[in-house]
Amino acid sequence: MQPVKLCAFLVTIDLLIKSEGWELTNISTPIIEFKNVGLSYGDDEVLKNIDLELEAGKFYTLLGPSGSGKTTILNLISGQLRVTHGDIFFEGNIINDVPVEKRHMNTVFQDYGLFPNMTVFENVAFGPSIKGMSKKNIKTKVTEMLTLVKLNQYADREITELSGGQRQRVAIARALANDPEVLLLDEPLSALDYKLRKEMQYELREIQQRLGITFVFVTHDQEEALAMSDWIFVMNDGVIQQNGSPEDIYDEPINHFVADFIGESNILDGIMKTDYLVHFTGKDFENVDAGMRPNERVEIVLRPEDLDLTTIENGKLIVTIADQSFRGDYYEITAIDDDGNEWQVQATNKSQIDARVGLTFDPEDIHIMRFNESENDFDARLESYEGEEDAEK
Amino acid sequence: MSRKFQWGNIYLGIVFVLLYLPILFLIVYSFNAGDVMQGWAGFSLKHYNELFSDTRILEIVVSTFLIALLSSLLASIIGTAGALYIYNLKHTVIKNVFLSLNNILLVSPDVIIGASFLILFTVMGFALGFTSVLLSHIAFSIPIVVLMVLPRLQEMNQSLVAAAKDLGANNWQMLSRVILPVISPGILAGFFMAFTYSLDDFAVTFFVTGNGFTTLSVEIYSRARQGVSLEINALSTMMFAVSLLLVLFYYVISTRAVKNKKRSTRLVLPASEGL
Predict the structure, then answer these.
(1) How many domains does the structure of chain B reveal?
(2) Shortest distance, CA A63 to any CA of chain B (angstroms)
(3) Which residue spans of chain A are classified as CATH 2.40.50.140?
(4) Within a domain: residue B89?
(5) Cα distances (angstroms) measured from residue A118 to each of A129, A165, B182
(6) ipTM of this predicted complex?
(7) Using CB atoms and an 8 Å cut-off, which of residues 118-137 of chain B contact chain A?
(8) Interchain proximity A106–B170, CB inside 8 Å
(9) DSSP A126-171
(10) Are A342 and A384 in contact (CB under 8 A)?
(11) Which of A13, A278, B69, B250 is most buried when burial is the number of CB atoms within 10 A of its CB?
């Protein structure tokens, strides 16, 4: 009897732990939440009904062209701006009217905003000394932060003696010295040269993972966003166009804007004849999308790296090579099909200009975008037919 | 090219000779043994002796410097606060109105300012003397300080303010730790300008000095009317020497600041590789 009892006991414990865990994840509130947030200057609507949730400890990116509203969202989080309507929550509490200096977040500004009258040490010590930390603790804190950004040799330097990359690091150290729960970064890498920017991308990601705090990073550079983020919000015209993991956003862009803004794309008009059959450039192609009206007008996205050049017999389409340029690890080829559509192709081999070749791709490389489909509709549709597929299996 | 330079130098030389000749003339005659500015009677320090035994004039020197120091200090404080206020005004029309009011005071003739102060003080029944001079000097110095401080504020990077707030500073901490240090060169320049304006102001002071109290410029003027005594030459020479010292002092501290900057950057360069 004893072993059976023990077993039952263990199972009960296990169930308890599991249910606890389930409850815990369920009640854990997002660190930052926007509910129907809008911001207008007079008649000019800069942000329209933004809903978003940020979980603690993740690296988020707000990505979009200038004027898309990404920095506005950042300034709303930091408290530099106030909402016109809607609510902003921090750990479940409304913070609409909490002033900047009372929020548990810090910002790395685009032009760094370093105090020119102070040394590197004094800049980083500014936040802790405002908080009233003791001299000894401040010194420990500043040394820790400067070590984190690899500037511990530079504590006594004047700001004017630093290079752009070093100033960037000081700005990061200064913002982190306040132990923020959320670090806001407003295009901090845009002033750096290409190589330094790459380096800083790695380092920022590393710092974020080491500290385990939430980063909200604003950028217009899609490569940067894809390389660094756990989750990306793509913004345009004051609206979140799409949010998701970098892979989701790259592989399943929801509309023309996202497909065009993230990576290179071939975008064509087409018709979804039935489930799993799409018509474009005068031909029918098998694909993997479903759940649309018969003969619905759609847009087709094919990524240049998913396209291959082949012999005319093996090609799904026949194209003429119009132009090519060498890009180091691949050739970027522009080809024209018989309908006059232009195709961007990334090929490993060099081609002959004016040669006629076949163009091929796999059914799963054809990505379908419906007109005016919202993210929720998109997710629901995907779930509906993926569920069907599973049921069939 | 070199020829042009020659002509330019000659021109400059003539201009400076013409500018400094009267002062030089005055200085030379302060050492004259005679009592008039005509004919050199030999070297002597007797006018300086007279000057230092003239307690009235020494008192006036002290009060003139006191007025200049106090008025420029107070004007620096009020003017900086005013510049901060104008800078923070969101409404551009009101901002421009304030700026225009400030500039009008700066360009309006001293005589008018002096006369209006005289009228104001008499209407109010305010006794003329030290306080009335001090008040009017503060008043005409404030626009100078505003004019020197405001550009510094406008040049200041806006994200400094945002960063200070972001790091938890309240308004006072932001002002005292970030804004004031950043604009301090402007405040210092405003202070020095106000100091020199106050030191040699005649027109405004002439109206608001009552009986008894007077400043150096007014005193020299009234003495000169009674016939020039070479004691005034001696006094002027001393004043000139003081201004020369001030200029020298300013030159030394400003070049030393530049040298310090340069030396520290030079020290930095070999070590700054890598990042």
Answers:
(1) 1
(2) 22
(3) 308-360
(4) yes
(5) 13, 18, 10
(6) 0.76
(7) none
(8) no
(9) HHHHHTT--HHHHHHHHHHHHHHTT-GGGTT-BGGGS-HHHHHHHH
(10) no
(11) A278
Interface test with B, best of A130, A147, A179 (most B CBs within 10 A): A130
Closest by CA position to A196, among listed A184, A207, A185, A188: A188
**B226 close to A (CB below 8 A):** no
What are the tens digits of pLDDT across the range A188-235? 988 888 888 999 999 999 999 999 999 999 999 998 999 999 999 999
Burial of B192 per CB tally in 10 Å (0-12, 13-18, 19+): middle
Pairing verdict, β A308-310 and A283-286 = unpaired
Residue B254 domain-assigned (yes or no): no
Torsion (CA) A38, A39, A45, A49 in degrees, nearest 10? -10
pLDDT score recorded for residue A1: 46
Shortest distance between the Cα of A152 and any Cα of chain B, in A, equals: 12
Q: Return the bridge partners of A269, or none.
A: A299
CATH number attached to the domain at A32-251 = 3.40.50.300
DSSP-based three-state secondary structure for A194? helix
Residue with tokens 């009017």: B136
DSSP-derived letter for residue A119 is B
CATH number at residue B155: 1.10.3720.10
Distance between CA atoms of residues B192 and B195, nearest Å: 5
Long-range contacts of B51-58 (CB under 8 A, 24+ apart): B51/B231, B51/B234, B51/B235, B51/B238, B54/B231, B57/B219, B57/B231, B57/B235
Is residue B138 exposed (0-12), middle (13-18) or buried (19+ Cβ within 10 Å)?
buried
pLDDT score for B179? 94
Chain segment A303-346, per-residue pLDDT in tens: 999 999 999 898 899 999 999 999 888 999 999 998 888 999 99
Section B128-134 average pLDDT: 91
Q: Which of B168, B182, B261 sits opposite A127 (nearest CB)?
A: B168
- Does A9 have pLDDT greater than 80? no
Residues spanned by CATH 3.40.50.300 within chain A? 32-251
Q: Of A270 and A7, which is predicted with more confidence?
A: A270
The CA distance from A242 to A234, in Å, is 5
- Let me know if domain A308-360 sits in CATH 3.40.50.150: no
- CB within 8 Å: A106 and B165: no
pLDDT tens sequence across A249-273? 998 899 999 999 988 889 999 999 9
